[in-house]
Amino acid sequence: MGASEGQEAPTYHRHGYHMAFVEAIPEVFQTLKEKTRRYGAICVNACVSDEEKDIVFHVASNGGQSSSFLEFGSHSLEHPEVVFERDIKLRSFRTESLDIPWGMYDLLVMDLQGAELHALKGLGDKIGQFKWIYTEVNEKELYKGCALVGQLDKFLRSHGFERKATNMTPHGWGDAFYAKASVPKPSALQVPKQFQPRIPIKYPPYSNEEFEWYFFRNFQPTGNEEYTYLPVMWTAYQIRMQRRSRSLRSNPHRRALQDWLNKLDRSKRYFTIVQHDDGIAFDLPFDCKVFAMGSAADYQLPLICEPYKGKIKDPKRKYLASFMGSKTHPMRAELESLRSDDVYISFDHHDLPTYFGIMQASTFTLAPRGYGATSFRIQEALRMGSVPVYLSDKHLIPHSDQECYLYMILSKERSVMDQINSIDSDAVIELKNWGQKFCQDQFTYERNLEIIKQNI
């Protein structure tokens, strides 16, 4: 944090470390991105603090290196050649709110010109994941109101850190190295970056991040878990491999990941998360608890994505039931026979405002399986206040909660519309009300993260 132009990046890369850099000054940030792009580093343009608010940020004349949202104190006496040459208006953010996969890192480096304690407080509970902290410290008030080294010692001691080394300059500032007094056994495995790619497509098109990455960014191991987290990005990796070869099983590019998996410590117990409809297409030669969304698993999660937050186009009418999608499975093609004035069935493309407008105007949303055994439409319908009807020849029931899904799984002995028409208006209202609660209880990223933590 306070990365400047990322001068340390080559050293970190040489030792095989994952990197995330935070820099506040926009133009310096652009240089940082350019210089660290080759290393696959995450770069965030943000001013970190312990609260979110509008601030005035003072840019220093020495290439921005002494810049701060604090005013100069004795810095003007110690380094009279350095002045604030301009001010810029920024917004500060709590450190923990940054879009960074915190679970990847155990060393925190800070050079924040008097704002170190603000940034540490802004970490919240995420400070507990770090083993080591290397930070600039002050014995004098070089910046007005800045925390002195004794204050940092007190704060970090309360979080289990001890100062192990200090290197001060004659000007009253220097660097200090802190380490956890007792480092817990790690509960998240370090995975080579090549096995953690970003997904090459957005599906659904309104969701920016799949749950595998959300969990990776937000999981904070305590060291007390029974299982060690194996954060391979299976879905993104397998999609990328499938684009290079029809058969993932015979793909020569899969050998690198399989060889790496084969070398893992088999005395440990692992857990991992996968969204892919085919599950994990690799052999796991060790005890591994799989949490899956689109395929059968040791623990079944719902198929979820980020919620749609765009506009919704009112279709100016109501439907008893609807389905919009492509014919990726025979069960979908069979729905064509249900089309009527009250039942909207379409295999054409719809823009998102129209798609969600029709869904919101439908009492029931037909959610047949596609290539995978389940459907994102279940979550979409719940969010739109429509009752989802889950149609599949292989039902995947999340959280082993069969009772909660009974109303969406229809009997094969009766036609779909006969069963829908048999539900009276009072029951429909009850289902909609219950569906809203059910969505919050089981169909959010935040809730499923907590459920996984409870089961490891």
Kindly name the structural category: alpha/beta
Q: Give the tally of β-strands.
A: 17
CATH topology of the largest domain: Rossmann fold
Which residues form runs of ≥5 with pLDDT under 50?
none
Q: What's the rounded overall pLDDT mean? A: 90
Radius of gyration over C-alpha positions, nearest whole angstrom: 26 Å
* Separation, N- and C-terminal Cα atoms: 32 Å
Number of domains: 3
- The CATH architecture of the largest domain can be given as 3-Layer(aba) Sandwich
Proportion of residues in extended strands: 15-25%
Supply the CATH class of the largest domain.
Answer: Alpha Beta
| Portion of residues within helices | 25-40%
Write the layout of secondary structure elements.
Blueprint (H helix, E strand, L loop, with lengths): L8 H6 L5 E4 L2 H11 L5 E4 L1 E3 L3 E8 L14 H4 L5 E11 L12 E4 L5 H7 L9 E7 L10 H9 L3 E8 L4 E8 L30 H8 L9 E2 L4 H9 L12 H8 L6 E6 L12 E6 L6 E2 L18 E6 L5 H4 L9 E4 L5 H9 L1 E7 L8 H8 L2 E5 L10 H4 L10 H6 L3 H18 L2 H10 L2
Parallel strand pairs: 1-2, 3-5, 6-7, 10-11, 11-12, 12-13, 14-15, 14-16, 16-17
Antiparallel strand pairs: 4-5, 7-9, 8-9
What this model shows, in words?
With 456 residues, this protein is an alpha/beta fold. It folds into three domains: 9-180, Rossmann fold (3-Layer(aba) Sandwich), CATH 3.40.50; 193-301, no CATH class; 319-446, Rossmann fold. The chain is built from 15 helices and 17 strands. The chain has helices at residues 9-14, 26-36, 75-78, 116-122, 149-157, 211-218, 234-242, 255-262, 330-333, 352-360, 377-384, 402-405, 416-421, 425-442, 445-454; strands at residues 20-23, 42-45, 47-49, 53-60, 84-94, 107-110, 132-138, 161-168, 173-180, 228-229, 269-274, 287-292, 299-300, 319-324, 343-346, 362-368, 387-391. The strands form five sheets. A four-stranded mixed β-sheet has the order 6-7-9-8, covered by helices on one side. It has a four-stranded parallel β-sheet with strand order 10-11-12-13, with no helix packed on it. The longest helix is centred in the C-terminal third of the chain and has 18 residues, at 425-442. The chain is elongated. The model has no long low-confidence stretch (mean pLDDT 90).
